[in-house]
Amino acid sequence: ETMTTLLTFLGTGSNRTVTYCWWDGTQEKQCQTHLFPIAACEFFQPQRILLAATQEVLEGRGKPNYEAFQKTLSQQGKTLELIHIPDGKFPDDLWTIFDQITESIQLQEKLLLDVTHAFRSLPMLALAVAAYLRRTKDVCVERILYGAYEARQPFRDPPEPQDQAPVFDLTSILDLLDWLGGAEALLKRGDARVLAERMEQTHRQLWKQPQGDERPYHLQRVANRLSQWTQALYLVRPLDVMEIAQQLLPELQNAQQEFQRWAKPFAVIVEQVQQEIQPLAYERPKDLSKQQLRCQLALINYCLQKGLVVQAITLAREWVVSWMFLVQEEGNWLNSDERENMEKALGASVELWCKKDKSKEADVPLWLRTKPYACQIAKVWNALRELRNDVAHGGMRKDRSDAKTISKRAQQIPEWLQALLEGTSLEKLGTDQVVIDLGTLYEGTAKLEALPDYIARAKELAGQGKDVILTGQAPIWMYLAIAHGLHGVARRLCYDSPVTGRVLIFDHCPA
After folding, report:
1. Which residue, 305, 315, 295, is CA-closest to 411?
2. Could you report the per-residue pLDDT of 108-143, keeping only the tens digit for each?
3. Rounded to whole angstroms, how far apart are CA atoms 420 and 499?
4. What's the CA gap between 410 and 402, in Å, rounded?
5. In a designed cystine with 118, which of 9, 50, 401, 504 is the match (CB 3.0 to 4.6 A)?
6. Helix locations, 412-507, DSSP H
7. Cα 326 from Cα 337, distance rounded (Å)
8. 3-class DSSP state for residue 346?
9. For 9-24, what is the mean pLDDT?
10. Omega of the bond prior to 154 within 30 degrees of 0, cis?
11. Radius of gyration of the chain, Cα coordinates, nearest whole angstrom
12. How many other CB atoms are found less than 10 A from the CB of residue 241?
């Protein structure tokens, strides 16, 4: 079992004997003494006792306190370990004390920190040490204790031994530092993991030791959502980021009272968090649209603001590929093969317009070649491709850019993409697109005498002036007849099969 260590201090004063009182959650414990470290040992029974003491405590005015403490422990068969610390009158002394204490605590120890008799700036230093040990040595700081001699009841001067002095648990101050560190991580780096961990711990603790009938019901849910959101952000999953953000916003709103009650440091920043996440939320992220791309662009901006340059560059490259599907006004934009083909088209356009290789003109699709902003697209893709390759390969090439240059160039990305987005006319991919599976128009075997019915049904499904894709198992005569019947009905007609891919039959509205 992990060892529990009490780290305590002694002063040079001469406090009178009082009765220190500690409520452990089930019963009140009492100890009558003039030195709180004696009470701390009795209340918590630590296996190891460390005393950080100055020369004045060991051999000067505080010697009676030291001797009384040592004598009591000896009578109980316990050993006292000394940490000889300087007086702390000079700045360098503080670092010396810091080093001495941190070196005395082992990895993963359980620590009880008593600051009752700590002098001058030692309580603040002890708090800093506890925070440092918790993060660097995985030390479990179970309690930060203060025997409130001055808060005794009744308050008499001088006090009587039966006067009761409460023991304050100041551990929440250390927890506050974690909350503040978590808030800083979220607001500066988009990393909500520390905050999520604090919420989850608070939720578990309150359900384990409820305060009356009060229990949190939203903290755990918000913690899980924040963790998922951060993971999606750092692993460059824009669709997940948008979907989780959409779910997170109402949950943050529902948990407002619980934040005020049990997560006050987060309550202070929750409005700012909501404002930052709002532009990143999208209800149906798998539906490609101009608004969805606008949301992704906001995510790219967010990453750049938080210093997540690699994520921003990766997102931007995929953004352009998705944008191309919207410009083309057709295609399965989440199909890996189709995205790869779109990347090849973009690569060919770079060769044609940026590198002036006329032999690549045939590799650039006609619909792209005829766009007025085709050259602009090529330049943006070329710049993003260079940035992405430099980052993805860790700069392992002769013409690599330094980190400062990459960061500076990345800041231009939102401007490039915004210009492309403003030139997009189609609001949503698939708005005017209809897929007709001819195999659903008949049962068993297609019958030639039923062809007029098949054509009428196809026209009904196609609507008027839309892009129509014919697919499915059906005889050739049925395909030919329906294609002929859709002339004057469909704006654009394509045939699609796993063997041929998409083949354009006619286009009454060329780009």
Report:
1. 305
2. 999 999 999 988 788 999 999 999 999 899 999 999
3. 33
4. 12
5. 9
6. 413-422, 451-462, 476-485
7. 17
8. helix
9. 91
10. yes
11. 35
12. 31
Separation of alpha carbons 383 and 369, rounded Å: 19
The one-letter amino acid at 333:
W
Lay out the sheet containing 467-471: strands in order across. 433-437, 467-471, 492-497, 501-507
pTM of this structure: 0.75
Mean pLDDT of 283-297: 93
Cα–Cα nearest to 55, from 71, 44, 66: 66
What DSSP element (H or E) covers 494?
A: strand 492-497
> What does the pLDDT look like over 161-203, one tens digit per residue?
999 999 999 998 888 888 999 999 999 999 999 999 999 999 9
User: Which residues, 6 or more positions from 378, have their beta carbon under 8 angstroms from its beta carbon?
Assistant: 346, 349, 350, 352, 353, 354
> Position of tokens 């479990």?
140
Terminal alpha carbon distance of the chain: 74
d(CA 65, CA 71): 10
Question: Do 138 and 168 meet the contact criterion of CB atoms below 8 Å apart?
Answer: no
> Would you state the structure tokens that stand for residue 362, as one six-digit string?
């045939």
- Burial of 496 per CB tally in 10 Å (0-12, 13-18, 19+): middle
Model confidence at 240: pLDDT above 80: yes
Please count the CA atoms within 13 angstroms of the CA of 140 that sit on its side-chain side: 7
Estimate the crossing angle of helix 193-208 against helix 219-234, to 10 degrees.
160
HSE on the CB side for 337, CA within 13 Å?
3
* DSSP code at position 241: H
Instruction: Say whether 116 sits in a helix, a strand or coil.
Output: coil
Residues across the chain: 511
What H or E segment, with its residue span, contains residue 376?
helix 374-392
In the 3-class helix/strand/coil scheme, how is 378-432 assigned residue by residue? HHHHHHHHHHHHHHHCCCCCCCCCCHHHHHHHHCCHHHHHHHHHHCCCCCECCCC
Longest dimension (CA), the chain: 115
CA angle 261, 215, 245 (to 5 degrees): 70
Q: Give the position of tokens 């002890």.
A: 126
Residue 324 near residue 309 (C-beta atoms within 8 A):
no
Q: Which residue has the tokens 């002098």?
A: 119
Dihedral angle sign, alpha carbons of residues 112, 118, 123, 126: negative
Is residue 2 over pLDDT 80?
no
Cβ neighbour number for residue 153 with a 10 Å cutoff:
11
| 112: its two tokens | 């009880």
At 363, which amino acid appears?
D
